[in-house]
Amino acid sequence: MRLNELYDCPYDVEIKGIKMNSKEVVPGDLFICTKGVTADRHDYVEDAIHHGAVAIVASRKIDVSVPVIYVEDTNRELPHLCSKFYRNPQDQLALVGITGTNGKTTVAMLIQDLLGSDICGYVGTNGIKCHAFQESIRNTTPDVDRMIPYLRRFADSGCKIVSMETSSEAFFRKRLDLFRFQVSVLTNITQDHLNIHKTLENYIDCKCKLFRKTKKDGFCILNRDDEHFETVRSCCSGKVLTYGTSEQADLRILKMKSLVDGTDITFQFQEETYDVHSPLIGEFNVYNLMAAFLVGYCFQLSMHDLIARIDRISMIPGRMELLKFGQPYQIILDYAHTPDALQKILSYLDKVKKGRLITVTGSAGGREQEKRGLMGKLVLDFSDHVIFTMDDPRNEDVNTIIDDLISLSDKKNYERIINREEAIFHALDLAKENDIVLIAGKGRDNYMAYRDLYLPYCDYDEVKKYFDTKKALF
Predict the structure, then answer these.
(1) Cα-based distances in Å from 256 to 286, 290, 307, 340
(2) Separation of alpha carbons 227 and 308, rounded Å
(3) Rounded Cα–Cα distance for residues 105 and 334 (Å)
(4) Of 212-216, 246-250, 310-314, 459-463, which gets the smallest average pLDDT?
(5) Cβ(187)–Cβ(291) below 8 Å
(6) Is 355:329 a contact under the CB 8 Å cutoff?
(7) Predicted confidence band of residue 260 (pLDDT cuts 50, 70, 90)
(8) Domains of the chain, first to last
(9) pTM for the complete prediction?
(10) Buried-exposed string 297-325: b where 16+ CB fall within 10 A, e elsewhere
C-alpha cells in the first residue's frame, strides 16, 4: 500500500509495514511515534530512518528527510492505521478472548485443539500457532502493530477463529481497544500484577474490559465458582454461560477423580450427564477443559462432538507438562508463579505422590514482593525438599528474593542454588524412583530476565541437557 492511499497526502511512497519500535524497522516501513510509559518515540525518528523508515507519523513537529504525516494522537492513530494497512483482518475472524490470573494459556490452547488448528489460530504465551505456521513471541498479548499482522496471517491461512490470551496488562496498555470479541472466557481471579494495577479492584476492572468488549450477539463464559463471579457478570454484554461445581452453573462439574494419567470427569449440561477421561492432570485443568467445551458449544459443537475430540488434546507445553526421558520418577514443568497456582498444583501433587516431592522454584525480581512469603511457605509446607533459585531476577539480588520467600516459614527443608541450571541438575540428581520433581515458575519461557537483558534460557532445554549430559539409562 502507498502512503497516499493511507492518508490524503501528496506522497506516493510505497509502505511495506508499520512499526513503532525503531530497532525493528526494516527498509520500506512507516514509523509511528507513539508514546509509551517511559519512552516518547518521537525521540527515535532518526534511528528509524537509519534502519530504513520511508515515512513518519507524528503528533509534534519534527525535522527529518522523509515525508511526515501529522496526527493529533499517535497512540489512538496506531490501531486504525494498522487495521487499514492490513485490510481489517479482525473483521474476518471470530475472536475468542481468555482472561484470568491462571489458566489462560491452557484454555486458549485447548480451544484450538478442540476446534482444530486448520480453522482456529492461537496467540499467547506459547507464541502464535495454526496449521500453517508456529512462532514464538515476546508478550502474552502483543501490541497492536504486531497483533493485526498476526491476525492477517491467520485469515490468509484460512482460519475463521482466533483463540487469544488477553492479559490484564494488555487492557491496561490499551493494546486491545480496537477489537470486539465473539466469545470471552474467565478462568479465575486472584491477586496478581499489583505492580501495574496497584489495587485488586483495578486489576479486576481490567479483566472486566474483555466482557464489556464482547459482541451483543456473543457469549461470556464465566467460572461460576470464582469469588469475583458476580462482579464480572455485571460487566457482560453478551449471553452469559457458566461452568463450575455450583448448582447454578450451566455446565456443572459433578465428579472429578484424579489418576496418574489424567482425570475422570462427570459433568451435566442442559439436563444431560456426560462422562469423559481427560489426559490433563489436576482439578484446575477440569475447570479449564469445561471452559473450552463451552467455547466449542458456542461454535455449534455438541458435547458429544467435543468429547469425541478429546484425543486431539495434547499436553500443554509448560503447563503441568510431564517430561519423559526414561527416568523412574516424574518431572513436571509448570508456569505457576502465584500463590493460587502453586496451592492448586502442590495440593494435587501431595495427593498423588508415592515418593518425595522435590520442588525447584523462585520468584521474579522487580515486582510483587508482597506475595513471595506466601509462595515460599506453600512450597515449603507441601514439598519434602525445596531448591530456591533465580526466576527472572532482573535488577534484584537473588538471595534477597529467596530471603523473602522463606520469611513466613520456620522450615529448613530447603537449599539455595542461585544458578537455575545448577538447581535443576541438582534436583534431578537427588530424585529417586517414585519421586516427583516439580520445576515451577517459568514453564516453557525461552528467556531469563537478568538485569536489563533477556538471556536465552528454557527449563525444558536444561532438563533435556541433563539427560543428554548424563546419558542416563533407566
Answers:
(1) 8, 12, 16, 20
(2) 32
(3) 11
(4) 310-314
(5) yes
(6) yes
(7) low
(8) 3-85 (3.40.1390.10), 89-312 (3.40.1190.10), 321-470 (3.90.190.20)
(9) 0.80
(10) bbbebebeebbebbeebeebbbbbbebee
Rg of the chain on CA atoms, in Å: 24
Residue 355 near residue 435, CB atoms below 8 Å: yes
Q: How far apart are CA 250 and CA 288, in angstroms?
A: 15
- pLDDT at position 200: 81
Calpha distance 339→348 (Å, rounded): 14
Confidence of residue 192 (pLDDT cuts 50, 70, 90): low
In this structure, what C-alpha cell is assigned to residue 22? 525503531
The yes-or-no verdict on residue 80 having pLDDT over 80 is yes
pLDDT score for 197? 52
Grid coordinates representing 375 are: 509462595
Q: Mention every residue, 6+ apart, whose C-beta is less than 8 A from residue 185.
A: 96, 97, 98, 99, 100, 107, 221, 222, 291, 294, 295
Q: What is the mean pLDDT of residues 187-203?
A: 70
Q: What is the pLDDT of residue 196?
A: 60
The continuous run of DSSP H or E covering 345 comes out as helix 339-352
Grid coordinates given for 110: 485447548
